Amino acid sequence: MEQVKDKFDRPLRDIRISLTDQCNFRCSYCMPAEIFGADYPFLPKEKYLTFAEIVRIVQAAAELGVEKIRLTGGEPLLRKHLSELVHDLYTKTSIKDIALTTNGVLLPKYATALKAAGLQRVNISMDALDDRVFKEMNGRAVGVKAVLKGIEAAKAAGLGIKINMVVKKGINDHQILPMAEHFKKEGIPLRFIEFMDVGSTNGWQLSSVVSKKEIIRLISSQFPIESVKGSYYGEVASRFQYQDGSGEFGVISSVTESFCSTCTRARVSADGKLYTCLFSAKGHDLKPVLRSSDSIKEVKEHIAAIWNQRIDRYSDERTEETAKNRPKIEMSYIGG
Ligand code: SAM
Ligand code: SF4
Ligand code: SF4
Predict the structure, then answer these.
(1) Is the pLDDT of residue 4 over 90?
(2) Ligand 1 centroid vs 336 CA: distance in angstroms?
């Protein structure tokens, strides 16, 4: 298997593909409602990559050593005929590890078909158990029950499940323990994510970040825990298990303990731009090469040439200054 490496010797191992920049939520840390309103310039749908183009990107990436893909957005379940894309990816590429990140509310409608099409795993975002806090954070007054139903549907369909919780100081940090306790009981791994300065619309400040250390201190005050060894190169979550054997949780500490030195991830926006870092200002348009011929080889060479030049390590270099002043692409566009 060919392996493409960047300037710091990091291989390209996984790709996140955004299927739309639109969403049925307006989470305050991602798409604040006051900015992402009716007049926000979302991508026109005709600019989206076709499913055939996405499949060719994934075929090319697989030949470069990519082992897993994640479909995301915006809200990927808003993309019409999504199970057809999953089926095509599963049957026409060598990658069998296909995952999806979603806010979960449309899973009761789609989970069974997605599983049948070849989807393996879902990460479901849920930031609070308390209805009031959750409604406020998702900006659309959607209650917790809608997400819990989505989790049930994913479970019934036989999908692997993890829960993502973004923690914002003073907003939902009091939900860390109730969430940990709930998903410990359910036996579903919960991932706490430090609030990040992605994009330039979410009003990020370092003081709103609850650090990995604080999260661990809080959970270990309630439950005996021990750390779990990472299972693969480039794993972004630090993992911990409960000593009573009831499962595990993780923390993604992109702000307080960055992991750029092992970052193996590329992202493709819904309109076909390849980004080599979550904090890039500019992407590399794959459409011209995708549309000039049917060759996988050319797409592969193009991606390899971009990755070879990669020097990104934004989180290692982050300061309050760069967080405020560097132009950055929005999370809902690039895919989380
Ligand atoms: N709509 C889907 C969802 O919410 O799961 C998929 C897209 S969302 C952009 C992907 C992930 O990014 C979610 O788990 C979300 O919580 C996370 N996210 C969004 N904005 C973030 C931020 N500013 N800091 C940390 N994580 C963020
Ligand atoms: Fe939508 Fe996901 Fe962003 Fe929330 S985090 S606004 S659900 S894309
Ligand atoms: Fe990877 Fe960029 Fe995040 Fe560093 S800041 S871990 S290079 S995506």
Answers:
(1) yes
(2) 5
